[in-house]
Structure formats: structure tokens, C-alpha cells
Amino acid sequence: MNLNRITPFRGPGGKVPRIIHFIGIGGIGMSALARFFHSKGAQVSGYDKTETSLTKELIQEGMKVHYDDNPGLVPDKVELVVYTPAIPNDHKEWAYCREKGYKLMKRSEVLQWITESSFNICIAGTHGKTTITTMIAHILRDSGFGCNAFLGGISVNYNTNFWPQAPAGGNEKNVCVVEADEYDRSFLKLSPDIAIITAMDADHLDIYGTASAMEEAFIEFSKRLKPGGKLIKRFGLKRGAELANGKEMMYSLQNESADTYAKNIRMQNGGYAFDVVIREKLIENITLNMGGMHNVENAVAAMATAAELDIDDQKIRDAVSSFRGVKRRFEYIIRNDRLVFIDDYAHHPEELRALITGARSLFRDRKCTVIFQPHLYSRTRDLAEGFAAVLDLADETILLPIYPARELPIPGVSSEMILGRMKNENKQVVSKEDLLNWMEKSFRKNVNKELGELL
């Protein structure tokens, strides 16, 4: 891949905005952009609805964050206001910034602007994109290749969702690794040099309306590849043949009909050892220190991307071995001979399936209890049947009330929609308070120290 044609980010008029305000700064994508501009020396401030560990970190890094919807807290002479599409129209700061005529841009528009002059590796898909994005960014950083990383999760290795390109021998390459989010069609603002597509399962039907419309958006995303760009797609994708033709590679967990795949997979210490075939090349003795066979497949996609950049095989092997994962992606919270507690963000039936089957394969002799909080009323309404079928794979299921995020309640939609469709009778819906009581009663006597820290 030729990286010589790209130049460092400068922004409109050849300069970076000096004063930037974010409405919704605590979001995982918004905070990555805030950190980007802060790294460029801009004065960054922002509003969010609630205080979180992430907003606390932004404050510690030198950004100003407030939690009151107060137009008086918007900086004077602000040059750019970045907002999330989830912000309600009656938000006071949002209305104030519109009335003042400030330059307003969606997160996706800002990301488009940042990446206009860069070499872009964009990872899209309804499952796996956060882990693959973070793996690729880690390989590039660990190997010395370098990149700007815009992640949809917190890297365990670096405890952040953004890091800047480090100069390589004084020559900044300006390579961006970007999680390409399908929500609100945001990924259609990007122009990849390398595009990865992991899955096109139905999701965000509140935006797309139908599964077919969502698939069309992924097809359109694939066609945004720059001339000479490379598409890396998962083997067996529905409508995969309709994705942009030209230079492409198919990856798979183990299917030898793909261009790149894993072989000789062995489980070890809650992770895996395996070899990877990348076209005619074999990279042997890869170690992945995280659970879930789906993460082996994610590693295959990440390694294929690194190989496209001509990164040395040993550097790829070392980087994968040192990769510690993404917070809330098959993250081990407790792991001992009495209890394994895994935290995972899985919010789609297929992600839940990968989580449950992965945990069961690694810990075959353990009882599998799943504590699941549905994310969004619309997703629960649209995918209740799928959630119920997958949760039946567990020995016991504890459901929490729906996490609404950006949505208002939908009449008749609740966690009971899933509960009522499950066949396994070992199930219940509980409040957060009752969950803590249940956990203490069920597990405290076996793991006093670890569970005490967790609770």
C-alpha cells in the first residue's frame, strides 16, 4: 500500500479549530473525537447528561465537562460545535448554538473531515467491529507502524478509545483506523483505503426500517472504497457478492475456501493458540489471550489487514500475543477455579450467541448463568424472538429492565417480551437492586474477596 500521497490533518483553512464544544461528549465515539482535538492543542469542552468514568477521564486530561443543560456554559467564541444525532431537539444548549449561528457538525461529519486527507482503515459490521478495530490499531501501534485510532470501545492495553499517530522517524504518515458505525448511516461519510465488513445482520431498524435497507447501506459503504482500495469481507456474508468488486479478500474462522483463515486451533488458559493462512503465506504459533472463538476470527481479519500493510510476521505475532482486549468485550472480571465472571457488551442475538457458545466451549464443566440487560426499546421490540432463542442456550437467565439510552419508552415493550418467549423456565426479570441481592446470596459465600470488589 502506498502511503506517500497523504498529508497530516490540518482542518478547514489549513488549521485546527481552537475552541470546540461537544454536545454529548461522554459518548464513546464523541469522546474519541474530543481526545483527538485535545491532542491537537484545541480548547475542548462539552456537555453530557450524566457523569461517568469516561467523562471523569476527559476532565483529568484537561477538558471541561458539565452535566447541566445550560447555554451559559458554552464557551465564548466557540469555533465548532460537535453534536450527537441522539440529542433531543428541545435541548437548550443545542438550540442556543443554532440561534447563535455557530458552526455545527455531526460526529460523522467531523470524522469525515478528519479523514479526508488520511489513509483510512475502516471497520464496519453489526458484530465484531470494535474488537477488530482495536486489534488492528494495537498491531499498528505495537509494531511501530503507527496510526490515529478512533475506537468504539476502551482498549485494555492503553485504557483509551483514541490515540494519535506517533511520528515514524520524524515522518508522520497520518493513517487512521476508524470504527465505521452503521447507526444513522454514519459510515457512509467515510472513504476507506481498506474496508473490513464483518456482518450485515438486521439491527437499527428504527433507522433503516427493513433488514434489506440495512444491507443496501453496507453495499453502498463498500463502494466508498478509494480507487485501488482493498475490501476485506467475512466469508459467507449474505449478499456478499454484491459488495464492491475489485481488490478483495475473504476471511473466515476455519473455512479453507476463504483467502485467509485459522487452523490448528488449540484452547489454552482461557485463550487460544493457532496458525493463520493468509493467501499463500502461513503464520504459525499465534497466541490470543482472550476468550471466544469469534475473537479468533476477529484476529484473522486484523492480521490480514496488517499483512496488507507489509508489517513483519513476527511483529504481527508479538502484537496479537500482547493484545489484552477491549473492555466489555469478553472481558474477564473474575476467573478462578470457583467462578468465571465475563463482562460483554453483546446487544444483538448473534453477539449473545457468540458469547454464550464461546464461554461454554472454554468452561465446559461450569453452570452458565447469563445476566442480560436489553439495549434500546426498538431493538427489543424488533429482535425479541432472537434474544429469547439465544438466551435459552444458558442454564439460567436473569433479565434486567431495558436500558433506554437515547430512546423514550415504547408502549408494551419491556424485558418481559423476551422472558415470555423463552422456553427455559429457569429465568426471571429483576431490578438492579434485586440483582445485587441475588448475586450476593448466590455467589458471596464462594468468592468473598473478588465479588466484594465487584459489588
Query: What would you call the structural class?
Result: alpha/beta
Output mean pLDDT.
Answer: 87
- Cα radius of gyration in angstroms: 22 Å
Q: Tell me the fraction of residues in β-strands, as a range.
A: 15-25%
Biggest sheet layout: 7 strands, mixed
Count of DSSP H/I helices: 14
Descriptors:
455 residues; alpha/beta; five-stranded parallel β-sheet; 20 strands; 22% strand
What does this structure look like?
The chain has 455 residues and is α/β, with parallel strands linked by helices. It contains 14 helices and 20 strands. The chain has helices at 28-39, 53-60, 92-100, 107-114, 129-142, 205-208, 211-222, 293-308, 313-322, 349-362, 377-391, 416-419, 432-443, 448-454; strands at 19-23, 43-47, 64-66, 80-83, 104-106, 119-124, 148-155, 160-163, 175-179, 194-197, 230-234, 248-251, 260-268, 271-278, 281-288, 331-335, 340-343, 369-372, 396-399, 427-429. Strands 8-7-9-6-10-11-12 form a seven-stranded mixed beta sheet, with helices on both faces. The protein has a five-stranded parallel beta sheet with strand order 3-2-1-4-5, sandwiched between helices. Strands 13-14-15 form a three-stranded antiparallel beta sheet. Strand 1, helix 1 and strand 2 form a beta-alpha-beta unit.
Question: What would you say about this model in short?
Answer:
By secondary structure, the chain is an alpha/beta fold. It contains 14 helices and 20 strands.
Write the layout of secondary structure elements.
Elements: E1 19-23, H1 28-39, E2 43-47, H2 53-60, E3 64-66, E4 80-83, H3 92-100, E5 104-106, H4 107-114, E6 119-124, H5 129-142, E7 148-155, E8 160-163, E9 175-179, E10 194-197, H6 205-208, H7 211-222, E11 230-234, E12 248-251, E13 260-268, E14 271-278, E15 281-288, H8 293-308, H9 313-322, E16 331-335, E17 340-343, H10 349-362, E18 369-372, H11 377-391, E19 396-399, H12 416-419, E20 427-429, H13 432-443, H14 448-454
Parallel strand pairs: 1-2, 1-4, 2-3, 4-5, 6-9, 6-10, 7-9, 10-11, 11-12, 18-19, 19-20
Antiparallel strand pairs: 7-8, 13-14, 14-15, 16-17
